[in-house]
Amino acid sequence: MNAALLKLLRRLVQRGNLTVIFSSGEKVVLGDGTGKHATVRLTDAGAEKAILYDPGLKFGEMYMDGRAVVEEGDIFDVLAIAKSNGLEKAATFANTIVALGHVLRQQVKSRLPVNRNRYNVAHHYDLDGKLFNLFLDEDWQYSCAYFHPPGISLDEAQRAKKRHIAAKLLLQPGQRVLEVGSGWGGMAMYLAESSGVEVMGITLSEEQLKVSRERAARRGLSDRVRFELQDYRTLQGQQFDRIVSVGMFEHVGIGNYRNFFRKMKELLKPDGVMLLHSIGQVYKPWATNPWIEKYIFPGGYIPALSEVLPPVESTRLLVKDIEILPMHYAWTLRAWRERFVARREEAIKLYDERFFRMWEFYLASSETAFLYDKHFIFQLQLSPSLETVPVSRDYIEAKERELLEFEKNRRRLELVAV
Known about the structure:
Layout: H1 3-12, E1 17-21, E2 27-30, E3 37-42, H2 45-53, H3 55-64, E4 68-72, H4 75-85, H5 93-110, H6 117-125, H7 129-133, H8 154-169, E5 176-180, H9 186-195, E6 198-203, H10 206-218, E7 225-229, E8 240-246, H11 257-267, E9 268-280, H12 290-295, H13 305-314, E10 318-325, H14 328-342, H15 344-350, H16 353-372, E11 376-383, H17 394-417
Parallel strand pairs: 1-3, 5-6, 5-8, 6-7, 8-9
Antiparallel strand pairs: 1-2, 3-4, 9-11, 10-11
């Protein structure tokens, strides 16, 4: 048994019910016996040593490689027990030095002039589309849903998210909209159909570009919605009435925030409105979890609002509204994780067992980040103008009611057509 790892685990797991089976065969029960029981087995001494000295990176790697095996419960249960106790209790002098090394590398990398955006996006978003079809909603919305009212389905919550964002954009027929990070095209098509606007969606994912264009063509929207393989930084000679960006800001990188908002102001008309939807954190994180950065979102960074607002202010863009959605992504991730795990065999056929465990770990660890690490979603509404946005928020709910009627009428027409 690795005595140093056992000491760390005893210090960490004071509440909950976790059994750890070491590679020697020795079994240790940790916690106060409350909550759901989970058991994890470490298969070899090398895995134990790796987790001890670099838990942020190596526990996920050991799970992917089948060297940390969950024998009772699932990986979410194990991570929930650890995080609910406070991961800072697992800090030692050695693993703190290793963690600081991860922070330093990411801080330096985020400020290098080398443009790796295309590679970073392709690493995640150019995976086989069949993978995302395993767990996303019917419109392939790969960002936080809006569970309003509570208890609605994932499909309903993703429609509510699009409705909520469209309402905040204050759209008028004939306006030109830029979507920065257009995904598989669902948001752009919703805005065009519901509000009579023209939308240009830009992405760095060739796979998403292909799917988006095919979807727009099938829905007869190619004349009003177009998608381009385009970096926002090199977009020139155009201005838009509205800009929307959902789930893309996490990939901008902390060293690029000032330039990002300068570019958005350049692209936005003087009476325009921008809506930015992003994950945020309560405190400055300084770096992304090293496992997530290495395997899931290279170059990604989830900021505190205190890191976002100063670059906004430097551009003289006016903050018109900030809304915090504290639990909606936890509910979204749970729905994704349950759907993904339910189709385990299909995921393994697409890639392999290790890939399945990697994505299960990603979805589970992301869910626990919102439950225990105080992650949240913020929606930041910006404008150069004092007059464009109403002085009260009543318009949001009123517009959502209109959009809901549009959705109901459209579904009725679709049923009649069938």
